[in-house]
Amino acid sequence: MIKILFVCHGNICRSTMCESFFTYLVQQKGLSDFFVINSAATSREEIGNPPHYGTVRKLHEKGIPLVPHRAVQMTADDYKKYDYFIGMDSENIRNMRRIAGGDPEEKIVKLLSFAEISRDVADPWYTGDFEATYRDTVEGCTKFLEFLESTGKLYK
């Protein structure tokens, strides 16, 4: 099993969108049995809250099922449990490393780096642009899955 934790600031917009989209993507390819997919926050601000209505609406509009979720915070213990920590922006990456106590196994990666894009996924909490976030989610998650498929780990 490949264990993935998508992470953003509050765990109600970007990381939940990625969790739902990536879950849908692997289901469509018949690869669900190879993955554990979750999401978390670096902050405590939204703990216990459901996904943002903008995320819910965008996923519904695109025909992507929403994974039932309540916001949780990433913990230091998570570093032992997951293989990949996928952050949405540079601030998330810094905070993820702080929470984990470093990144000795180089498990913490920014989502769009898989698409060879250096910019951050803009936070729709501030921008209101859930369509742009969705496009970045599709690009990053699709390239991330292609990366995982290229490693051969999915078929052992």
Explain the layout of strands and helices.
Blueprint: E1 2-8, H1 14-28, E2 35-41, H2 53-61, H3 78-81, E3 84-87, H4 90-100, E4 108-110, H5 124-127, H6 130-151
Parallel strand pairs: 1-2, 1-3, 3-4
Helix pairs in contact: 1-6
Molecular structure report:
There is one protein chain. The protein has 156 residues and is α/β, with parallel strands linked by helices. The protein has helices at 14-28, 53-61, 78-81, 90-100, 124-127, 130-151, and strands spanning 2-8, 35-41, 84-87, 108-110. A 4-stranded parallel beta sheet has the order 2-1-3-4, with helices on both faces. Strand 1 (2-8), helix 1 and strand 2 form a beta-alpha-beta unit. The longest helix has 22 residues, at 130-151.
Features:
156 residues, alpha/beta, Rossmann fold, four-stranded parallel beta sheet, 6 helices
